[in-house]
What we know:
The chain is of the alpha/beta class. The chain has two domains: 16-270, NAD(P)-binding Rossmann-like Domain (Rossmann fold, 3-Layer(aba) Sandwich), CATH 3.40.50.720; 274-474, N-(1-d-carboxylethyl)-l-norvaline Dehydrogenase, domain 2 (Orthogonal Bundle), CATH 1.10.1040.10. The protein has helices spanning 25-29, 31-42, 57-63, 97-105, 135-142, 149-162, 179-194, 196-205, 222-232, 274-297, 303-308, 310-323, 335-347, 355-359, 362-379, 385-397, 415-423, 428-436, 444-464, 466-474, and strands at residues 16-21, 47-52, 69-75, 78-84, 87-92, 111-114, 169-172, 211-214, 240-242, 247-251, 268-270. The strands form three sheets. It has a five-stranded parallel sheet with strand order 5-2-1-6-7, sandwiched between helices. Strands 4-3-9 form a three-stranded mixed sheet, sandwiched between helices. Strands 8-10-11 form a three-stranded mixed sheet, covered by helices on one side. β3 and β4 form a beta hairpin. α6 (149-162) crosses α7 (179-194), α15 packs antiparallel against α16 (385-397) and α16 (385-397) crosses α19. Residues 1-5 have low confidence and may be disordered.
Amino acid sequence: MPDESRPRPGQSRPATGIVHLGLGAFFRAFGCVYIADAMAASGGDWGIVGVSLRSPDTRDALRDQDWGYTSVTLAPEGEKTRWIDVLNGVLVAPEDPAAVLEAMADPAVKIVTLTVTEKGYCHNPATGRLNPQHPDIVQDLAQPLPVSAPGYIVRALQLRRAAGVAPFTVLTCDNLPENGKLVRGVVLDLASLIDPELAGWIAVDGRFPGTMVDRITPATTAEDIARVAALIGRHDAAPVMHEPFAQWAVEDDFVGGERPDLAAAGVELVSDVTAHEHMKLRMLNGTHSALAYTGYLAGHQTIADTVADPVFAAYVRTLWAEIIPAVEAPPGVSLAGYAEALFARYANPNIRHRTWQIAMDGSQKLPQRLLGTLRKALDDRRAAPGLCLAVAAWMRYVGGTDEAGQPIDVRDPLAARLRAASDGAATPAAKVAALLAIREVFPEDLAARLSGPLTWSAELLWSAGARAAAREVSQ
């Protein structure tokens, strides 16, 4: 049996059929693996050119490895390695934006995939629409060489239309509600501001299938790199670490029907991904964020550490009890069974998924991960103290100081505004009111309805601490 941990010199790579924007650990641990499996099963030229939109670090780490890297499965019983070699190169957008557009405009490229995180869509999370005042969008409207992910998509499609080439399929792999519809709307909003006729062409001929992606992928550390070197017998500067579980549901709607044999790789091809998406966003991402904020404040470094604490084990089950009534199960799925499977994944001691990593960019994540579920609970007249505590914990976290009085490195596009709002209020109730007034996060109607329950949660959290508050709402 071949050693899957080693590269295979001399083996020709497939030609490029996919450009990926936002090449980071998640897509290399998830999408690249599925694409490799699809080509192993059915062939096809679906090699990938990755694009780093900010930093050259990934390019620099992979270049001397001929773009290959080690995928490490972190199972409870041990680690398994596999060499992944579907990348044909990595471009760094700020260094040469024209090269990125040229790659995307190539007629051989049929799909552009994205993992740019919630903030990369330059939209208003509360409305889902393009934010035309976003600094990157202002720049993209003023010049033909873009800086944002939507800008690259629109300008590349503009080049393809001028050359008489069909559009590529835009396949987002980010955790956003109705992510295909959202990216389509953002792209059409931007295209309309640049050229209404281009927007019309994209609206008719473009395709933006919705997706649901799921694989826990902790950030790779220097210790991981050293451990992988010991496992495989050589240095790999850019391995990716991930759990055994992976799930990818994709709406089967591609330009010209052209795509890899995703089904052969285990992808669920569906007509509507909404049920899968809501289940995952609310039950996994929602509880991940809740555990990240409350667990961090209580002093837990990872999700596994957090759920090993019996108080937070009970708290996450309280959250699922509040969330499940707001979720429509996909066909054949038991939501109670899904929750128990999630708990087992969270408890995997080999997955060191840090609470600070999940806590990043909360202003962009809360609307789809927690606030939609809270709105449904309010509509149904159901109490949701666990979810309210999660939002209150975010409010305490963005204040920039933990329960021990130590500073928190808050990484969020709105970090300065959030800190100023918190600092300008003297009491928990006043802090809740100030933060609820930030419309990019809280729509006005929802803010008014949340004021009372969030104030109660905040006062409990500030007076008792996160662990005691989690115990209180779980009783």
